[in-house]
Amino acid sequence: MKACLRIILAIICIFSAMCAQAKMSIRSMYDGSQIIELAEIRQLTTLDDGIVEGAEFSPDGKSIAYASAIISRSASTDDFDAQARIVAVPSTGGRPTVLLNTALSANGVIPPNKDVIIPGGLAQFVWSPDSRSIALIVGLCRDTVDNQWQAILMVNRNGSRRGLIDLPKGTYIMGRLAWSPNGRKIAILVQNPSRDPKEKPARNIILYDTISNVPLIQIDTPSNIIELEKFTDDGKGLICLMHQDKKGPARVEVSLSGEPMKLLEEKLSPDRLSPDGAFKLIENKPGITIEQISPRKEISLLRKPDSHFIDWSPDSKMISFWKDMEIKDDSESRKDGLPALWIGLTQEGKYNHMYVTSLDSYPQVKWSCDGSILAYISQDHLYTARLTARPADMTDKRDLGIPLSEDEMKMTLLSNSKQIGTSMQMYAADNDGRLPDAATFEDDLTPYSRNNDIFRSPNGGADLYEYFPQGNLNSITNPAETVLLTMDAGYGWQVDLYADGHAKSVPKN
């Protein structure tokens, strides 16, 4: 019976010690008020979905659109057939919706008298502001892929076609397209062929109605307008990039009502600014260092040189980065490196970054608009990593060095007292009922508690206990009323440990 009791006490003591010594997970970080941790990693595509090439979150974060290619060998020949697809899938996982599926043979032959839509690449499509539709730049082909011209295809998130804007042959769309804030218009920057080879091709901004698919406005623009970024917030203008020979690119606003073009930024900063403009990445420094713009302050986020910046989160509070992770066999004679995806906070701190997952290639990461989900590709599949936030618990606070509240301190001392009581009973069982001596109290109990922190204050490391030696445990006539040890954290109460192993909080005398 005594042996069974000793085993039970040992299990309780070891488990309590393990819980007390647990550290913050490498998949969590602390932002000063809460713990941010990895909730789950979810695989959204399978082998049947083909090779995924990229991903874009919808503005509401509920869907992810991606481009994929499915390659198969022809049954009758050695040729390969391909399917180019644009697919939308719920960001939490679920049934995908194919928005565009184009089948092409290896030699590019297209059935006679049939127009085929070829997606122009993931970089050339944009979600509508209400997240209900996608507009993408496509190629229309007839008879052969060489006979191709551009168009804009609009597809609803449920897979139904919303509209097709057919552009004149020879017209080339430069960069991305842009939706108006109300989703009623689409703007594109186009380059038209020049009849005179000595002249630069003309460039225009064209606005299309997304209901009727007809052009509304055509604006002649200088030939040095190189990219259309977005509509202004009020929908009355377009933000564009303009090339300057010696000064570099500038940002301008093109009015839709015919007003003169407005210069917004004469010289764009080459630095990698955060989305809110509050930080910029400092290049050519080991690790990852950013600069706070106002007030100016340099912040060293990661000091080791194996950390490589990827991108900012939409709210500028986090970054994504990668590190090389070494893998090796048991003999350490064979080694290799894999890139690992991490995220970090834009503030200094011991726990300001966390590990997400290892990858098979250098990562390209997309954030959801609220920064709660990351999408990435590994082994040609699309994955998401979802983050959650919660208040720091007592274990977190001990790891972070954050003082406990009075209630948390009371709970901790009650737990620690019970662990000390269990250790004392185990010691007494091994020593014919004799209790530890006062002079060697901690040393006597260490083999049983396996955690000396239970004798110390969680807020500073000082000893909190006072021990009252009682000689032999078996000689105590009223163990439920006999105090062996008190723990005092400086409040109006103390925790008493009794000879029968129970502990309770009592007012100080």
Describe the structure.
The protein has 509 residues and is mostly beta strands. The chain has helices at residues 2-21, 394-400, 406-430, 441-449; strands spanning 28-30, 34-43, 51-57, 63-73, 80-90, 97-104, 115-119, 125-127, 133-142, 144-156, 161-166, 172-173, 178-179, 185-192, 202-209, 215-221, 225-231, 237-242, 250-255, 262-265, 279-282, 288-292, 297-302, 307-312, 318-328, 335-345, 353-358, 365-367, 373-378, 381-391, 465-467, 483-487, 493-498, 503-507. A 5-stranded antiparallel β-sheet has the order 1-2-30-29-28, with no helix packed on it. Strands 7, 8, 9, 10 and 11 form a 5-stranded antiparallel β-sheet that branches. Strands 12, 13, 14, 15 and 16 form a 5-stranded antiparallel β-sheet that branches. The protein is elongated, with a radius of gyration of 33 Å.
Strand content of the residues, in percent? 35-45%
The number of helical elements comes to 4
**End-to-end separation:** 39 Å
Query: How many strands?
Result: 34
Task: Give a quick precis of the structure.
The chain is mainly β and 509 residues long. The protein has helices at 2-21, 394-400, 406-430, 441-449; strands at residues 28-30, 34-43, 51-57, 63-73, 80-90, 97-104, 115-119, 125-127, 133-142, 144-156, 161-166, 172-173, 178-179, 185-192, 202-209, 215-221, 225-231, 237-242, 250-255, 262-265, 279-282, 288-292, 297-302, 307-312, 318-328, 335-345, 353-358, 365-367, 373-378, 381-391, 465-467, 483-487, 493-498, 503-507. Strand 24 (307-312) and strand 25 (318-328) form a beta hairpin.
